[in-house]
Amino acid sequence: MEERLTPLTVVGMMSGSSLDGMDICICKFTPLVDGTITHEIIVADTIEYEPEWIDHLSNALNFSMSDYFSFEADYSYCISMMVKDFIQIFGVDVDLIASHGHTLDHRPDEGISVQIGDPGVIAALTGVDTVADFRIQDITLGGQGAPIIPIAEKLLYPEFKSFINLGGIANISIHTEDTIIAWDTIPCNQVLNDQAMILGAEYDENGEWAKKGQYNEGLAESWDALEYLAHDIPKSLDNNWIREEYLPIISNLKVDPKDALNTACNHIATQIKKDIQKFSIVLPEKIMITGGGTHNTYLISCIEKQLSTIGIQIFIPEKTVIDYKEATMTALMGYLFAMDIPSTIPSVTGANRSTIAGKYCKG
């Protein structure tokens, strides 16, 4: 690690596709002489969205142009005040804010990926230098702009070589000595939460409804027929595709929500197994699982059952890592930007080179 690298305390902000809120994590990064980076999570929490924000974020692409610009400005102000209050409440001196924002549209094949939350507004209202918008450079260079989590896995969790993240979308990373591959495998919490809401809750706690449901073979076969699941890597999913193509199959087939939850959990587990078998050069022995879906014990039991048939053990880390790995990743992206170090991985995204990703605004 070059001598110019210095410790920094960075705030990471991440709004996931499951719309549960803004994850905020304050991390201290310290470079070591052996080329690794250590990190300490000083404090982390999730600021839940008010119902109107969930509605706006779900439907923003249907707004008129005028309404969209007003919404975008309001959202930037909202998350700026979230992080400003967060920093003040916990009394931590921070050097930098890194904001992933919220993804509204992701069509890398068309050169489009929109993460709202203007870094200029955040920097102005907090007085802290801010980095944001980490995907568009990679997309412009021919990549998917996703997944971006493998850089954090490589630098912050080097003892593991394989990862599953169960967020709104489930993604998989496989690290070898020669390369890293990672991809979005299948919709996850977006589907589970959608069906739980029909039953009157924000999510299916511990997968209890899923456990009581029946597997619907017709639903699983219809999902299997979707072209994305058969695509080669690199590949990444768009939230709008999930809402327009994946979720409507449930209502079109008139599947009971509990049966849909059961089918989804089993289908997610099966697809994860299929993808690991298809894309891994060598099957991993152990895989770390993080993300909100890790708290769904029925989903985890389905994944564990499927992966055990091909000799893979699962590892569940501590709760802070489960819940805030992506916010920590965002903080790391900010740190790497400040240290002038590339943060994207071409073997993951398909871009023709790596980039020092992000847009920078002075506070």
Order of helices and strands: EEEHHEEHEHHEEEHHHHHHEHEHHE
Sheet with most strands: 7 strands, mixed
The beta-strand count equals 12
Main structural class: alpha/beta
Q: Which percent bin holds the helix content?
A: 40-55%
Instruction: Identify low-pLDDT runs.
Output: none
Query: Rough shape?
Result: globular
Broad CATH class of the largest domain: Alpha Beta
Strand residues, percent: 15-25%
Task: Please tell me how large the radius of gyration is.
Answer: 20 Å
Total of helices: 14
Mean pLDDT: 95
**By CATH's scheme, which homologous superfamily of the largest domain applies?**
ATPase, nucleotide binding domain
CATH architecture of the largest domain: 2-Layer Sandwich
How would you concisely characterize the structure shown here?
This protein is of the alpha/beta class and 363 residues long.
Q: How does this model look, in words?
A:
- The chain is α/β, with parallel strands linked by helices and 363 residues long.
- The protein folds into two domains: 8-145 and 328-361, Nucleotidyltransferase, domain 5; 150-321, Nucleotidyltransferase, domain 5 (2-Layer Sandwich).
- Helices cover 41% and strands 22% of the residues.
- It contains 14 helices and twelve strands.
- The chain has helices at 51-59, 65-90, 119-126, 136-140, 150-156, 189-198, 208-212, 217-224, 239-246, 248-252, 257-279, 297-308, 319-338, 346-349; strands spanning 8-15, 22-31, 37-47, 96-107, 112-116, 130-132, 162-166, 169-175, 180-187, 286-290, 313-315, 359-361.
- The strands form two sheets. Strands 1, 2, 3, 4, 5, 6 and 12 form a seven-stranded mixed β-sheet that branches. A five-stranded mixed β-sheet has the order 9-8-7-10-11, with helices on both faces.
- A hairpin with a 2-residue loop joins strand 7 (162-166) and strand 8 (169-175).
- Helix 6 (189-198) packs antiparallel against helix 11 (257-279) and helix 11 runs parallel beside helix 12 (297-308).
- It starts with 7 loop residues before the first strand and ends with a strand.
